[in-house]
UniProtKB/TrEMBL annotation:
Protein name from the UniProt record: VDE lipocalin domain-containing protein
Pro residues composition-biased segments: 609-628
GO biological process, one term: xanthophyll cycle
Region (Disordered): 264-285, 606-628
Domain of life from the UniProt record: Eukaryota
Low complexity bias spans: 264-283
Pfam families listed in its UniProt record: VDE (PF07137)
Source organism phylogeny: Eukaryota, Sar, Alveolata, Dinophyceae, Suessiales
Residue ranges of domain VDE lipocalin in the record: 351-602
């Protein structure tokens, strides 16, 4: 019998203790081989889908250990209150031919995970076509698929430590990067300097990141030891001038070289000529300078980096740079902490203690659609992930996430909230000291349903987070509860679901003051995932025409951390030009610039489907409105 994860994949309650112990070592090895290959929501959904597959009964799925063959069984298995045949039938109706090939897919997963090389196992899984395998298996590959073991590298010599801790970001002299879409203006050089500052938030002082324009790079007198960098990243570089060949060839001395474009070759390619004035990484010269990947792992990394830059989002471009530094320079705690570390014990514990939640999800096609949607989101694509969650929101998915991620902590995650940037709220408002009550009243803002029908505090006019900027008409409501000691946050926003339908969604947060006026701690349960956030007031106009807030947040057990800045106005429109100078100074308190804020789409919604706003009677109008 070939070495495998077990003679048979069975529901957890049918596994004997001996079989579980026998499988544990092989599963642990597979999980260790793939630990940390992805960052973002896809691993979380993949783990939940794996739990579903672990509980699929023999009526749906059976992988036999005799020669590695996979087959179906027609014997229905009963569980209290649920007929598994009905579950499989409902799943099959929702996902076409997926169940008919699931046994082959799982056979391939199991054999690849255990690195089975026996002819019997290869024959058993050979019938599974490559095309179907690529569609079904790649979301699970980071969990169980065979992968290249992490390359072992010797400790750097003392003389090379400075070289390995320096990174150069090389950019063109004109145009703009693809992620500059905000309400302010800048240049490539200005954007690069600000981009480097944002990257430094997550470097913890471990790496030096330098930026340089192409002309300055070419004019430098490069000696044999001048390029003391461990990594060079070139973005949107045009064809090289003839007098720059020697300087560019000096890049060959740099151990790692990556050249990409912030514009994809598809729909965004036309924008390259107008905004970046470059042929970017399509230039044959830069392609020849790019480091050849020495493994499949590096090839995947280069593809992920290109994908992140092509999304034209600053947050995702920052992640791309952090991933390169984490791979080629030094491990970064900020990147390592967001990688899931599930173990055999945590998966088994979750499958055992959350079996009814898993079966409940299996019985609802909407729940499975939601998880598949998450799995097929791109790397760390929070915009896609949040849209999936909101499009397929269901009680079953919430219960499964709450049990698996929060109660059982299947990912073994203990991620902490980002500590950078350090922000101090303003000390004064309207030429008086900012108190705790005044700061609360700024958030309560324009809420005044009795006189003006204003059932919300603010509308979001601009945001720095692409995950949140995609939603229209974000009505922000802060209010005190009946006891007046409780402070609550109730956003209402419009979502365009994946089927193009328009859906209003709401959330509820508890808000707690800190000892510092203008700083609050938020907490909420969102789709079964517990969120903790810290919000800070950056500033507000004396007449409440606008306010700016910054937030950092973490889904501790889901391995997700995030930051963002929001510009709030009464009508959702941007402030006039006379306010821009003051607004620019305000958001600079968080180390941000105006071009990093993207204007929201606040076009009117369908009058037949108004937003489900609430009017809590426990909250009177803010006293700040009387003097506004």
């Amino acid at each position: 019998m070939p070495t495998s994860l077990g003679a048979r994949l069975l529901p957890v309650w049918q596994m004997s203790p001996h079989k579980l112990r026998w499988q544990e070592a092989h599963v642990e090895q597979a999980l260790l081989r793939v630990r940390g290959r992805l960052v973002g929501p896809a691993p979380v959904a993949s783990i939940l889908l794996l739990l579903l597959l672990m509980l699929l009964p023999p009526a749906c799925l059976l992988v036999s250990g005799s020669g590695g063959a996979a087959h179906r069984t027609s014997a229905p298995v009963q569980a209290p209150g649920l007929h598994f045949g009905q579950v499989c039938s409902r799943w099959g109706l929702s996902f076409g031919s997926l169940p008919s090939s699931a046994h082959n897919a799982m056979c391939s997963i199991v054999t690849r995970a255990a690195r089975i090389e026996s002819p019997a196992s290869s024959t058993a899984c050979r019938s599974f076509s490559r095309r179907r395998e690529s569609l079904f298996l790649w979301p699970f590959s980071w969990i169980l698929a065979s992968s290249v073991a992490p390359e072992s590298s010797a400790a750097p010599a003392a003389a090379d430590r400075d070289l390995q801790r320096k990174v150069l970001l090389l950019h063109p002299d004109s145009g703009l990067p693809g992620f500059v879409k905000g309400i302010g203006s800048t240049s490539w050089s200005g954007a690069a300097v600000q981009f480097a500052k944002r990257v430094n938030w997550d470097l913890d002082g471990l790496v030096e990141l330098h930026t340089q324009g192409l002309t300055d790079f070419c004019q430098e007198a490069w000696g044999p030891d001048s390029l003391r960098y461990g990594l060079v990243l070139g973005i949107d570089l045009p064809d090289l001038p003839a007098d720059c060949l020697e300087a560019a060839r000096a890049l060959l001395e740099v151990p790692a070289r990556v050249f990409v474009s912030s514009f994809s070759k598809g729909g965004s390619g036309s924008g390259s000529s107008s905004r970046s004035n470059s042929s970017s990484s399509s230039s044959p010269f830069w392609l020849r300078l790019t480091t050849d990947p020495d493994s499949r792992k590096q090839a995947r990394l280069f593809a992920k980096v290109a994908e992140l830059w092509h999304r034209q989002s600053e947050d995702e471009a920052i992640l791309a740079v952090l991933m390169l530094i984490d791979t080629f320079i030094t491990p970064l705690p900020s990147v390592q902490a967001q990688r899931p570390v599930p173990s055999f014990k945590s998966i088994l514990r979750t499958a055992t203690n959350c079996n009814w939640q898993i079966l409940g999800c299996l019985s609802q096609p909407r729940c499975i659609r939601g998880m598949l949607c998450l799995v097929f989101c791109g790397l760390a694509d929070q915009a896609c992930a949040y849209r999936c969650l909101l499009s397929f929101e269901s009680v079953e998915f919430m219960k499964l996430s709450l049990c698996a991620l929060e109660r059982q902590n299947v990912l073994n995650s203990n991620l902490q909230m980002p500590e950078s940037p350090k922000i101090a709220p303003p000390a004064n408002f309207r030429k008086a000291e900012l108190t705790l009550e005044t700061a609360d009243n700024i958030l309560v803002g324009h809420f005044n349903p009795s006189q003006h029908g204003q059932n919300y505090s603010w509308l979001v006019a601009a945001s720095s987070s692409s995950a949140y900027a995609q939603f229209r008409l974000q009505h922000q409501l802060w209010y005190h509860g009946p006891s007046q000691r409780s402070f609550l946050y109730h956003p209402t926003f419009l979502v365009e679901a994946l089927n193009s339908s328009k859906i209003w969604r709401t959330r509820d947060y508890k808000v707690a003051r800190t000892k510092t006026a203008g700083e609050w701690e938020f907490s909420a349960l969102d789709n079964g995932i517990f969120l903790k956030e810290r919000w800070q007031l950056l500033g507000a106009d004396d007449e409440l025409r606008w306010a700016a807030v910054f937030f950092t947040g973490v889904a501790q057990n889901a391995g997700q951390a995030y930051r963002g800045c929001m510009l709030l106005t009464k009508d959702g429109l941007l402030p006039n030009q006379n306010s821009m100078e003051q607004l620019e100074a305000t958001i600079s308190r968080a180390g941000l610039q105006l071009w990093e804020l993207v204007a929201m789409d606040n076009s009117p919604a369908d009058q037949l489907a108004p937003p489900p706003l609430i009017s809590p009677k426990s909250q009177p109008p803010s006293p700040l409105l009387q003097n506004a």
